[in-house]
Amino acid sequence: MFKINSLYLTDGYKIGHKQMLAEGTNYLYGTWIPRSIKYAPKGIKKIVSFGQQMTVKWLHDEFNENFFSLNKHEALSFTRDMSMYLGMDFNGCHFEDLYHLGYLPIKVKSLPEGIETPPNVPHMTFVNTKPGFAWLTLYLETLISSLSWKPSTSATIALQYKRNAVKWVKKTDRNSEGLIPFLCHDFSARGLNPWDMISSGLGHATSFRGSDTLAVIPAARYFYHEPNHEVCINSVNASEHSVSTTKIFTVGEKQMLSDWMKTFPNGILSIVADTFDLWKLITEYLPALKDEILSRDGKLVIRPDSGNPVDIICGERRITTDHNGELKYANDEPKHKGVIELLWDIFGGIINDQGYKVLDSHIGAIYGDSITIERQEEIYERLSMKGFATTNIVLGVGSFTYQYNTRDTFGFAAKGSWFEANGVGYDIYKDPVTDDGTKKSLRGRIRVNEDFSVTTGASEEEEKEGLLRIIYENGVFKNTNTLEDIRERLEETV
């Protein structure tokens, strides 16, 4: 398996920064901070603190396994490559000093994970713990940045999905609030790289239990102390087009449904339903199999997978005129009704005490293609306008949601804010005259107060107080969180 010396996991321009530091620099203190919500998805005003513990654990393991554990020649051969890379002799004595030290001389402080902050509140601070290793704070910035932005970003977006679900469930089916953790299901794994699969998947899992991202199960145990006898996510037996076509081309689609219900007689069974003709499957095959479906000990879930998700679920709104010339919505074709109304016509259900229709417990629907926060809200709103409860549909949230983001979605950045040289401390910051203010950085040591105000230029004693707590120091982890802790804190915000 391809592995590389951990020293390569930084930006090339950082190689010469040790020599560029002010003479006599012994310590450098920096922040990890979301600076802006100007590119945030609709409705998001705050950013979830999440992923710091995972980032630091990964960083710790990376250097232990791929730097400190190497023989000296392997570990320091990096210096030879840098000489060729720069086209000049490169002095790597500081890397040799780190190798002989045998651990990362870094102290990391973090906000509690599972809380929300406004922009410009640091989620982490970091400083070297031994004089002469100020260069390491700079050097680790690239890796900390690349590891940290995704879990927080995905957790923040997942929380907005959950807020929308909570709002509409309370409005349309308040007695089914227990379903909320399963109404938005993580389908993003195939669109992410392995690290993002884990970090984004865990971000989704801070708000929901529904997930097909299996890597989240062991990752939650390793990074967030989830017990081995439990799993933190759940899913169901479900088909996909490849297996569907093997049945359709041998026994036919109707028989496929019947066969699979016999193979899986209990529990939830999800069927991808648009391999060919979604509307035919619903209006012909499901009525023919109605008795089998209603007698089954579980729920058959119909999954469309293409088209405009709002129209597929809620129906196309085709405007016509009646005999008096008045405008009305056409409802004469399956596509004009949409999946939920068609299932109601076949299987019925109940009308709850809020006056909304809830499908019979043996039938349901999920849609997992191209879902966004905006489409989620539109689906819920249009279903309610037709008299249907939000709980009739599960939305699969995929890489269309979790991959179309960058570090700039919430303006995450790591910036130096204080250093000490020759026994004198200096508050430092940047404030580009050509910027709109987003890139102006905090100065000095930092304290985050209980009300999320930020004390800048804090004294050494002031910096020890506030919400930021040490989570890692000289190779030792402290004040760790569990996934359950994080879920409970976020639940309180909702």
Describe how the helices and strands are arranged:
Layout (H helix, E strand, L loop, with lengths): L16 H4 L4 E10 L12 E2 L3 H17 L3 H15 L6 H9 L4 E5 L5 E2 L6 E5 L5 H6 L1 H32 L11 E3 L7 H12 L10 H9 L12 E2 L2 H8 L4 H11 L5 E4 L5 H11 L1 H6 L4 E4 L5 H6 L4 E3 L5 E3 L4 H4 L1 H9 L1 E3 L5 E3 L3 E5 L5 H13 L7 E5 L1 H4 L9 E10 L2 E4 L17 E4 L5 E5 L1 H4 L5 E5 L2 E2 L5 H11 L1
Helix pairs in contact: 2-6, 6-7, 6-16, 11-15
Query: What count of helical segments does DSSP give?
Result: 19
The order of strands across the largest sheet is 17-16-1-5-3-20-21
**Radius of gyration computed on alpha carbons:** 27 Å
How many DSSP-defined strands?
A: 21
Let me know the average pLDDT. 95
Beginning-to-end CA distance, first to last residue: 43 Å
Unreliable residue runs:
none
In CATH terms, what is the fold-level topology of the largest domain? TIM Barrel
Silhouette: elongated
Please indicate the percent range of residues in DSSP E strands (runs of 2 or more).
15-25%
CATH class designation of the largest domain: Alpha Beta
CATH superfamily of the largest domain: Aldolase class I
Overall number of domains: 2
Structural class: alpha/beta
From the 3D coordinates, which CATH architecture of the largest domain would you assign? Alpha-Beta Barrel
Description:
With 494 residues, the chain is of the alpha/beta class. It folds into 2 domains: 6-152 and 411-493, nicotinate phosphoribosyltransferase, CATH 3.20.140.10; 155-402, Aldolase class I (TIM Barrel, Alpha-Beta Barrel), CATH 3.20.20.70. Helices cover 39% and strands 18% of the residues. The protein has 19 helices and 21 strands. The strands form 6 sheets. A 7-stranded antiparallel beta sheet has the order 17-16-1-5-3-20-21. Strand 14 (363-367), helix 16 (373-385) and strand 15 form a beta-alpha-beta unit. The longest helix has 32 residues, at 141-172.
